[in-house]
């Protein structure tokens, strides 16, 4: 399954070069609906919220790199299944590309993090991480 990336893993961002360069078959613009972005300490959080839209990229990994990449991205995103201390959760969501809808892995803010962000976080207008500059 491909990954929807919206922050530091997008092309031109720091973690794209560290984790994705040379390990993908395809990268294409995409949008995640019913989510908004919040500013984090150097990276964004997608928080599920009806009516919002997050801009990002759909990344399809090379089959020979997929399992290792999945494990590396889980570590990067501080995601451990079932651990309430995780910053993110990896969930399957439908994203939209120019070719239509695609199911993809998306790292969204874990429930406790999402609650803190909704209460006192800084929401990024427009849902596009690179556009914040």
Concise summary:
This is Gamma-glutamylcyclotransferase AIG2-like domain-containing protein. The chain is of the alpha+beta class and 133 residues long.
Distance between the termini: 31 Å
How many β strands by DSSP?
A: 6
Overall number of domains:
1
Give the number of helices.
3
- Estimated share of beta-strand residues: 35-45%
Which H/E pattern describes the elements?
Answer: EHEEHEEHE
Neighbour order of strands in the largest sheet = 1-3-2-4-5
Structural class: alpha+beta
CATH class: Alpha Beta
The CATH architecture category equals Roll
Radius of gyration: 14 Å
Unreliable sequence segments: none
Please give the largest β-sheet. Answer: 5 strands, mixed, barrel
**Cα shape:** globular
Look at the structure and name the CATH superfamily: Gamma-glutamyl cyclotransferase-like
And the CATH topology? Hypothetical upf0131 protein ytfp
Overall mean pLDDT = 95
The percent range for helix content is: 10-25%
């Amino acid at each position: 399954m491909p990954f929807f990336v919206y922050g530091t893993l997008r092309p031109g961002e720091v973690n794209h070069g560290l984790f994705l360069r040379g390990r993908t078959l395809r990268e294409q613009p995409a949008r995640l609906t019913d989510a908004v972005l919040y500013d984090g300490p150097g990276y964004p959080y997608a928080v599920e919220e009806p009516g919002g839209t997050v801009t990002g990229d759909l990344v399809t990994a090379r089959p020979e790199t997929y399992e290792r990449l999945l494990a590396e991205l889980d570590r990067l995103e501080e995601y451990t299944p079932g651990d309430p201390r995780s910053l993110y959760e990896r969930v399957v969501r439908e994203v939209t590309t120019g070719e239509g809808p695609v199911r993809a892995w998306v790292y969204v803010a874990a429930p406790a993090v999402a609650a803190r962000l909704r209460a006192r976080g800084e929401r990024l207008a427009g849902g596009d991480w690179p556009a914040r500059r």
